[in-house]
Each structure stands twice: as structure tokens, then as C-alpha cells.
Write a sequence for this structure.
């Protein structure tokens, strides 16, 4: 993790937030390469799940919604984590996290009852991570929603919340979507956007932050006639998520599909699978898949007084659809993809290795579609005629690909720089290029070089950079 965090900072993927003022705990800013990487993830997701399917539509809803939304969804009452305070140093921790960390060797059954949680902490001698005391207060439920006020008066009547998930924006618009898109069940609504949670213990770089992006789908299905009718849709989405992870370059052996037992699921869910990944700091949730039943639509219908039922055009039956919800965290996708891509490789004693006397390279082996920069254009020397030819090639390629132009330092060092940010192709313009109107294209992974006519370069790159999912 330390190597990755330092690479992210050094090369402009991700910077600590508000850094010149000493930072703001666990906030991060995406730099020029980070934003390209993140956008590639979001764009591919949108293309795959919205544009390329006939049963999906997209939305972009408000971050701040009417407070009644959060009453109806249960977030005001239930969206909380157990917070335990060390009576000696007054630091606060997630009681369930402390118990979960300890439970690896001991298989502790984590209770939701605060008194039992306190007893378990004492029984297993789980001490304060900060001061080492074993003096816990009774855990209290702490609501994770960020509260603010609309208008100039800070009163309870004006209190509003930043959304803790994107889902509710889609539920409250269900009728609008039905009326305007004329979709028939089953169909889904997709949204990508920010969510905010006042996490008690954020950390592990961009893994757990208080402000993060989600890519969510609410997939509406007919109300199950038989008990397990919803399962086929649930299974279909699990397969879609598996395929997505494969295309993101995540190795299957580091993924775990954990069924969350009764009592530990979110208040709205009848079945949840956490898709967990072996992060360097432990096996943790990457994505989630939940069967939310008709919980949300039912509550919004009751609280708003609006009829949110679906009218089946064939049977004329009116009913509330049920919902399967696959959720992807954008930041966690970025983190897992970067961890998978990160390689340190010994260089063979090739010309590349000897030229700058290094025998090791750091290379981000992203799937090509994901790489923030697709092509680097490198004139062999800064000589005027080479530079201008290389710039000509660059100006043409930027119409089709995200490119970088670099003419500083030795060619070996420039290759290393591009390897370190995961650029799949380096195009070198050399003195021969002026004669034979061709360039050398070097492949990031194999380091093999091809001589390609400049007139055929775009076609060559398109062929090699197009990924058939
Ligand atoms: P966790 O158990 O890690 O707190 P969660 O079960 O609360 O996660 P969900 O409510 O299912 O998470 O949110 C859906 C997805 O949003 C998660 O799978 C994750 O990818 C992402 N996510 C949730 N909380 C955060 C956070 N604080 N920072 C970054 N991403 C998050």
C-alpha cells in the first residue's frame, strides 16, 4: 500500500485533500491521471449497463433531498454504526470492527446488542488501539448521515442530509421513469454519483472515505409469485458483477462472495452478498448485491401518499415491483484495479535495461481500456526536425486517444516513466522515421517493438487498444 500511495502522489493519480493546509483526514483529490482512470471506469460501466442494454435507463439525481425521503427509507432511524469510546483517552472506534478484527482467531459471534458488545470487548481483552487501556464505555448507535441546513436559519425544521447512497434518488423517481420511458418489467435505473457518510473510522487510503462515488442499479422485477422468483435476477446480477471484475483485471482467486447472515444485513435487505477482495490490509468489501424486496417503494408510497404501483399491461394487475440492487464503489474499484496492476519486474539484460543502468521496472499492467494514457509519443532526441515530426504525430493521435508527449531525458527513463503510469504503447520517432516515414511502437507488457508506417499508425493502435468484452 505504501508503495502504491507514494506512486499515486508522485505521478499525479491521487493527492491528499487540502494538502497545503495540512490535509483533511481521509479526504483525497484525484489528479490528472487519477481522473482519467476513474472516468474510464465510470464510462465503461455506463456504456455496458445503460447504453448497451435495452432494459436500463440512467439518471442523475440531487445530493440533498427532502428529509421525508430519509424518514421513509429508514436511514434516519437505522443508518448507524455502533460507536464505542475508550473512557481513558476518549478515542472512539467502531465496536463491530474491533470485534471483527479480533474474531479471526477466535470466531466471535458479533452481537448487535450494545451491552453484549461491551462484554465481548472486555471478555476478549480487546484494548484501545490508541492508549492500550481496557476501559470501554457502552457502545452507542451513531447515525452516519451528514446533517446541514437549508437557508440562513439553523433550526430542526430546516435540517437536511447529504445522501448516504444514490439509491433513494432512483426510488423516488420510479413513477417519473415509468411515465416517461415506458419501460416494462423487468427494467433497471442506473446512477453514478457521490454519497456521503460520516464514517467513524475511515482509512486505508481511498478504501473508506467520508465522501465517495457509487455506481448503483435499482433493478425492478415483478413481485415474486413464488418465494424464490427473485433469485434468478439476483444470480444474473452476480454473474454480471463477476464478469465486470474480470474485465477490470481483478484476479478471481482474490475475490470472495460472502452471503451476509440474518441480523447483520442492512435494514432493507432480505439477501445480501458482499463481494470481498483480498486488500493488503485484509479481506474487505469491494461491492455489494442486495435484494431490497419492495421495502423502499412500499415505504415511499405510504409516506408520500402517491401511487407507485406498476400496471401490468397484459394482466391489468397493479403491484409494487421488487428490487435487486447491485452496487459498485468507484474508489474501491480504482484501488483494487491499481493493486492488481502494480508489478515490479526484473528487466532482462536488454538494451532498455543497460541504457539507464536499472535492472528493475515498476509497471502498472492495467487492462488496456483502463489505462489513463493510451499512447506516449517520444522523439529519440530533442533535435528540431525530430521534435517537429513527433509533434505532428502527436497532434494527429490526440484526436483519437489520450496521449502524452515527452522529449526529456533518456529514452530508457521515459519508457520507465510510461510503464509506471501504465501506458500501453510508446511511439518513438527516430532519425530513420524522417526517411522511412515509420515509427517504433513499444508494447508495455512484452517490451517488444514493432516498426509501423506513420500512415498506418492509427489503425494499428485502434486494433490493439480495442478491447472486446
Ligand atoms: P462497509 O461495510 O465497507 O462499510 P457498506 O456495506 O456500508 O460498506 P454499501 O452500503 O453496500 O457499503 O455501499 C455500497 C458500496 O459503496 C460498497 O460496496 C463500497 O464499494 C462503497 N462504499 C461504501 N462505503 C464507502 C466508503 N466509506 N468509502 C468508499 N466507498 C464506500
Amino acid at each position: 500500500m505504501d508503495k502504491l500511495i507514494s506512486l499515486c502522489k508522485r505521478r499525479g493519480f491521487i493527492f491528499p485533500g487540502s494538502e497545503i493546509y495540512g490535509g483533511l483526514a481521509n479526504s483525497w483529490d484525484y489528479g490528472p491521471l487519477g481522473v482519467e482512470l476513474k472516468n474510464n471506469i465510470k464510462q465503461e460501466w455506463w456504456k455496458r449497463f445503460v447504453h448497451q442494454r435495452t432494459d436500463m435507463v440512467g439518471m442523475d439525481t440531487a445530493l440533498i433531498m427532502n428529509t421525508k425521503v430519509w424518514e421513509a427509507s429508514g436511514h434516519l432511524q437505522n443508518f448507524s454504526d455502533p460507536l464505542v469510546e475508550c473512557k481513558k483517552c476518549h478515542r472512539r472506534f467502531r465496536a463491530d470492527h474491533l470485534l471483527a478484527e479480533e474474531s479471526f482467531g477466535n470466531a466471535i459471534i458479533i452481537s448487535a446488542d450494545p451491552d453484549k458488545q461491551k462484554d465481548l470487548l472486555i471478555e476478549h481483552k480487546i484494548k484501545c488501539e490508541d492508549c492500550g487501556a481496557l476501559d470501554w464505555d457502552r457502545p452507542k448507535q451513531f447515525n452516519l448521515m451528514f446533517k446541514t441546513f437549508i437557508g440562513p436559519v439553523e433550526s430542526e425544521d430546516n435540517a437536511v442530509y447529504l445522501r448516504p447512497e444514490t439509491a433513494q434518488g432512483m426510488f423516488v423517481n420510479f413513477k417519473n421513469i415509468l411515465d416517461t420511458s415506458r419501460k416494462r418489467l423487468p427494467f433497471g435505473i442506473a446512477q453514478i454519483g457521490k454519497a456521503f457518510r460520516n464514517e467513524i473510522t475511515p482509512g486505508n487510503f481511498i478504501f473508506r472515505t467520508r465522501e465517495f462515488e457509487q455506481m448503483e442499479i435499482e433493478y425492478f422485477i415483478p413481485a415474486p409469485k413464488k418465494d424464490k422468483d427473485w433469485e434468478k435476477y439476483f444470480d444474473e446480477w452476480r454473474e454480471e458483477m463477476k464478469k465486470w471484475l474480470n474485465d477490470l483485471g481483478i484476479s478471481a482467486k482474490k475475490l470472495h462472495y460472502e452471503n451476509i447472515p440474518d441480523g447483520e444485513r442492512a435494514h432493507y435487505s432480505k439477501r445480501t452478498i458482499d463481494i470481498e477482495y483480498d486488500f493488503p490490509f485484509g479481506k474487505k468489501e469491494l461491492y455489494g448485491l442486495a435484494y431490497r424486496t419492495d421495502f423502499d417503494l412500499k415505504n415511499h408510497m405510504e409516506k408520500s401518499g402517491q401511487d407507485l404501483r406498476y400496471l401490468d399491461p397484459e394482466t391489468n394487475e397493479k403491484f409494487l415491483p421488487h428490487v435487486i440492487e447491485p452496487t459498485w464503489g468507484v474508489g474501491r474499484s480504482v484501488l483494487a484495479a491499481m493493486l492488481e496492476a502494480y508489478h515490479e519486474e526484473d528487466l532482462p539484460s536488454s538494451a532498455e535495461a543497460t541504457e539507464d543502468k536499472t535492472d528493475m521496472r515498476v509497471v502498472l499492467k492495467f487492462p488496456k481500456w483502463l489505462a489513463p494514457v493510451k499512447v506516449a509519443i517520444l522523439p529519440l532526441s530533442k533535435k528540431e526536425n525530430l521534435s517537429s515530426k513527433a509533434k505532428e504525430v502527436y497532434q494527429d493521435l490526440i484526436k483519437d486517444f489520450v496521449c502524452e508527449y515527452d522529449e526529456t531525458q533518456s529514452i530508457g527513463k521515459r519508457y520507465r516513466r510510461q510503464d509506471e503510469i501504465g501506458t500501453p504503447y510508446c511511439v518513438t520517432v527516430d532519425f530513420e522515421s524522417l526517411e522511412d516515414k515509420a515509427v517504433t511502437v513499444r508494447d508495455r507488457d512484452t517490451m517488444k517493438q514493432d516498426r509501423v508506417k506513420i500512415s498506418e499508425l492509427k489503425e494499428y493502435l485502434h486494433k490493439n487498444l480495442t478491447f472486446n468484452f
In short: Residues 197, 199, 208-209, 212, 214, 285-288, 327, 329, 331-332 surround adenosine-5'-triphosphate (CB under 6 Å). The chain has a mean pLDDT of 93.
